[in-house]
Automatic annotation (TrEMBL):
Known EC number: 3.2.2.-
Alphabetized CDD domains for the sequence: AAG
Top-level taxon of origin: Bacteria
Name of this chain's protein: Putative 3-methyladenine DNA glycosylase
GO MF entries: hydrolase activity, acting on glycosyl bonds
Keyword Hydrolase among UniProt keywords: yes
């Protein structure tokens, strides 16, 4: 029996496109996280695009390092990084190999496995907050650096994959600057979200971190 249309795995060709094309097209897609305790599924509601070495806001702006190597492809893989010594963030690599572009999955709605996500997100006031923001999302889905470089197109045995879900009409897509990005990349309108969705995280402008004296 063939899979339901909304349960069809996204092929590598979906990711092998320009980052600003892929990013809004990820809204409404289903991210599947397979764990030993069971699967968790998330409908993506908010993302941010990072355009590699041409983008001052990107980790790849100054070239390839051991930390950002997964960003350089091939497309359809995960790039997971640790930030502020506290949180993980999940990115989906896209565009041609060696171009180093990716999309940060900022927020989503847990549609399967909410009971597993709640165990990891004890501070969430309700299910809408389980994955409302990239750090919360990574915590809810048990994402850490061990998933860096995971092939999202490797089939049902992969710990991470993307399903077709339901794409979002263009008039339902909000667009604006990325959260917390400063410097020359602050004004880039590379953040996309589903308008009116309660799981979308609030926008916050960049605030320079003060050095302790």
């Amino acid at each position: 029996m063939s899979a339901r249309p909304d349960r069809t795995p996204l092929p590598r060709s979906f990711f092998d496109r320009p980052v600003l094309t892929v990013a809004p097209d990820l809204l409404g897609r289903i991210l599947v996280r397979r764990t030993e305790e069971g699967p968790i599924e998330l409908r993506i509601t908010e993302v941010e695009a990072y355009a590699g070495e041409s983008d001052p806001g990107s980790h790849a702006y100054r070239g390839r390092t051991e930390r950002n190597a997964s960003m350089f492809g091939p497309p359809g893989h995960a790039y997971v990084y640790f930030i502020y010594g506290m949180w993980f963030s999940l990115n989906l690599v896209c565009g041609p190999k060696d171009h180093a572009s990716g999309v940060l999955v900022r927020a989503g709605e847990i549609t399967v496995g909410a009971e597993l996500a709640r165990k990891r997100r004890l501070s969430a006031k309700n299910d809408k907050e389980l994955a409302k923001g990239p750090a919360r999302l990574a915590t809810a889905l048990a994402v850490d650096r061990s998933l860096d470089g995971t092939d999202l197109c490797a089939g049902p045995d992969s710990p991470l994959s993307l399903l077709t879900g339901a794409s979002v009409a263009s008039h339902q897509v909000g667009n604006g600057p990325r959260t917390g990005v400063g410097g020359a990349g602050a004004a880039h309108p590379y953040r996309y979200w589903i308008d009116g969705d309660p799981t979308v995280s609030p926008y916050r402008a960049h605030v320079p971190r003060r050095r302790s004296t």
